[in-house]
Amino acid sequence: MPGLAAAEQDAVSLVRRVARALNRRISDLVALLFRHKSAGSFGAVAGFAIAVVFAWKFLRSSSTPRPRRPAAPKRPSAAGSAALAPDGPAEPAGDSGTLTRRQIVARRLGGCRRVTCQLIGIVFEEKTPEELQNHATVKPSVVELLLEISKYCDFYLMETVLDDKSEENALMALENAGLFKSGGLMKEKVLFCSSEVGRTSFVRQLESDFHIDASLEIISQLSRFIRCQLFVSSMEGGQLAANVFNSPSLEQFFS
Fold it and tell me: What gap in Å lies between CA 118 and CA 170, rounded to an integer?
């Protein structure tokens, strides 16, 4: 029948167009079916073409990877990295040009909340207890630093003295330097003892986190009990413990 033949030709043309839109394997499969078609296969061929189209779309959508959502950016810390103290006290890194004195103190102390410090040779110009009997002189270069440390943590000063006159000289020198005006450092936090054993005992009883001393013997004795220490001496301390820093002066360590 001419009408049926024309309809079949239209269907064949439609299927071939669909086949060309698909990949080569599907096109070959459609061609194979047409080589075996008969006059009564029009409906089967058309149904097959529709099924192939939907199957191809399904396979294409399932094999195409979906784009991943970009990861959310990490939120920066509330404080600037320069102001943050590291996990532990840090050695001087020559960064005084970029950090404020408060940031430097926080960086060096590394979260230590109680600090103890010897007076002679570190805060005072005097080097021996005998000199302290006659006079006491606070180093001008440490005044602002001591005030900043007293604001940052619980700060105690201590010294081994030979008599009451030495205590008076020490307290008067600290007061004249203005170290008791800010409220962070008080006279009650300046401790005196008659021996180095007593100074060692003070540090342990206060449970200091960071001790500063010019006596290598005291530094060595406390290294097992104190989180960190600073040995102030122009000479290197040799085999110091891993938790002990060495600096010629207090101000140089906090520079």
Answer: 12
